[in-house]
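Write out the 3D structure for:
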Amino acid sequence: MTAPHDVVFLLDVDNTLLDNDSIIADLQHHLEREIGAASARQYWKMFETLRIELGYADYLGALQRYRSAAEQAHGDDPRLLRMSTFLIDYPFADRLYPRALDVVRRLNGFGRTVILSDGDVVFQPRKVLRSGLWDAACGRVLIYIHKEQMLESVQRHFPARHYVMVDDKLRILDTMKKSMGHRLTTVFPRQGHYGLDPANAAAYPAADFSIERIGDLVDFDVRALLGRKGDEVRAILEKS
């Protein structure tokens, strides 16, 4: 436990700072090219089953499950070894949304930035590291299976008087808002397949602030994010 900061900015990764939809599309093309469309469909079927079981996306775990099934049915397939290499060595930095790193750097000037993501313990940290987000956030990275269920842990690691959460999923923002109340400002970037899905927008309350894309935060009046949160926080930001 450290002394509380005035403001901590919590930043999601997939489809918030990083274009994960494009990464999945690239993986789909690679799978079809290497093992064929039918086998690729089988991989994604196992991927979805595993996601339901675990509660998060596990690309490498699904690949291992596919490999086991393929070996039982057809014997070993050396092509599968290239699948893991594609994922581990993927150029994630090329898939950052425009000005994503600039957003992290700018928010660093107003408080502490923390990468807060869902995911597995191997692939997701690799993604955060190779994209440059790990260094941009000065190593302040938290990855959980369900981050919205780990808010006490988040606040213990990074205590603050006020938090700002930026996420492309209104469900996550709504859950966190209900838990943290006025101590949390929510920001919703309308990008990625969740952010652009009208059904999601209709199913949950609006965030405190909505932006068209993550890069908009570079020019956003950050003080406005906390303009209704009390004189103490406003006074801190006025000095920034």
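DSSP finds twelve helices and six strands in the chain.
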